[in-house]
Design brief:
Residues 209-250 form a coiled coil. This is CHAD domain-containing protein. It comes from Nocardiopsis terrae. Keywords: Coiled coil. This protein has three domains: 3-141, no CATH class; 146-230; 233-325. The strands form three sheets. It has a two-stranded antiparallel ribbon with strand order 1-2. A two-stranded antiparallel sheet has the order 3-4. It has a two-stranded parallel sheet with strand order 5-6. Helix 1 (3-29) crosses helix 4 (85-93). Strand 3 and strand 4 form a beta hairpin. It is built from twelve helices and six strands. The chain has 418 residues and is mainly α. The longest helix has 52 residues, at 296-347.
């Protein structure tokens, strides 16, 4: 090599040595690496960590040998003397990096074995880079898993502490939630000792923690309700009774409205309105028996279920009322349209036309007959409108009676879903 080539190569290997040294120092300071080094790992995470440690160990050994070559080359370059170019050329380009024998090899135990391995500086850098990347890949994977899992686990443990406090307050048997405690312990062991077990294709699977969270949240909610029932039983019962009264009123309105709809409209048929009130009132009364037994947790669970049932029953009654009102509104709408079409026929001088008179009588009978058929009325009204357009020589496709884009005049259900 020329002196220029030597200086260029020497600068390169010095930079590579400094870069590897910086990487090693950064790895030692890395929080994830330090946590892994001190953790009691298990399963697949332990296996991969042991592989990563082997990479780091090999990296340090190669680095020490590589650094020795770089330092020797620097010393020769600074001291000069004789003709150092051959030595520098050998150190910088040839198999000058002498690696110690692998641990446990026959040579290390003083037994006959293969010669010590020699590699070039370029090969040494390639090996160190590969070892560093393999080690940091494991560290990064575990750190990513922990970053996702630890906050969720911390939330679960906080929920568990609250469950314990609430259980004591309502004097619940400590073994009542033993199953949840065991699940939490198992999940905690997995998160802390084998987090990579929950990683699939770089995606952290939190489904088991999420399911446990739902169970803990349910138990916590029941215990909170139990505490409320213990401290404010009478007030809670009064609120339940008041809520059931509201449902009873909503059901009554819907049933009265259905009676009127059935008397006025035959098709589409009016939906039934069930009465959940007797069952809800019986459930409220049954809570006294649980109170007499001091079963506050049972009362808390019953309170939550009953509140949801009352809410759903009220929503259902109001929805049925809206649906029934829709039938009456549809009938009123069709009647208004018939009057508008009749007025138009009068303006055009066609009101007494034989075809129109018959169609008007048919549509009028369908709409004012009780109970009326909204489907048949819609078809009759559409025929009346279409005939007016034909006789007047006008066409207004947009002024349709039937709802929906592209609906044919004879394919309507009265505009109301059953």
């Amino acid at each position: 090599m020329s002196w220029e080539g030597v200086d260029h190569a020497l600068n390169r290997v010095c930079g590579e040595a400094d870069d590897i040294s910086f990487r090693l120092a950064s790895l030692d300071r890395h929080v994830g690496y330090r946590l892994l080094r001190d953790a009691e790992l298990d399963g697949g995470t332990r296996h991969r960590w042991e592989g990563a440690q082997a990479h780091v160990h090999r990296l340090r050994k190669v680095y020490d040998a590589f650094r020795a070559v770089v330092d020797r080359a620097l010393g020769i370059r600074e001291n000069g003397g004789g003709d150092p170019l051959p030595d520098l050329t050998f150190l910088l380009t040839d198999e000058s990096v002498v690696l110690p024998p692998a641990e446990g090899s026959p040579h290390e135990r003083g037994l006959p074995g293969p010669d010590t391995e020699r590699i070039t500086p370029a090969e040494a850098v390639a090996r160190m880079t590969a070892d560093y990347e393999a080690a940091t890949e494991v560290v990064s994977a575990v750190e990513t898993a922990w970053d996702t899992l630890h906050p969720r686990l911390g939330e679960l443990e906080t929920m568990w502490q609250e469950i314990g406090t609430l259980s004591d307050m309502v004097e619940l048997d400590p073994e009542e939630h033993e199953g949840l405690r065991e699940q939490l312990v198992r999940e905690g062991e997995t998160v802390r000792r084998d987090p990579l077990r929950l990683v699939t294709d770089t995606r952290v699977d939190t489904s088991s923690l999420d399911r446990l969270r739902d169970l803990l949240d349910q138990s916590r909610g029941e215990l909170r309700d139990a505490l409320r029932m213990r401290d404010s039983y009478t007030e809670n019962i009064q609120r339940l009774v008041s809520a059931v009264d509201d449902v009873e009123q909503a059901v009554g309105r819907a049933r009265d409205l259905r009676t009127r709809v059935v008397a006025k409209i035959s098709s589409p048929s009016a939906a039934d309105v069930p009465d959940p009130v007797p069952g809800l009132r019986a459930a409220v009364v049954e809570m006294d028996a649980l109170r007499a037994q001091g079963d506050w947790r049972g009362l808390g669970a019953r309170l939550g279920r009953l509140q949801r049932s009352i809410h759903q029953a009220g929503d259902d009654a109001r929805e049925r009322e809206r649906s029934l009102s829709g039938l009456l509104r549809r009938r009123a709408e069709l009647r208004g349209r018939l009057d508008a079409f009749r007025a138009r026929a009068v303006r055009l001088g066609l009101a007494e036309h034989t075809r129109l008179s018959g169609l008007h009588r048919q549509a009028h009978w369908e709409l004012w007959n009780a109970p009326c058929d909204l489907r048949a009325a819609t078809v009759a009204l559409s025929a009346y409108q279409r005939t007016i357009q034909e006789l007047s020589g006008t066409g207004h496709p947009g002024n349709r009676t039937t709802p929906g884009n592209g609906a044919s005049d004879g394919e309507t259900d009265g505009g109301v879903s059953r």
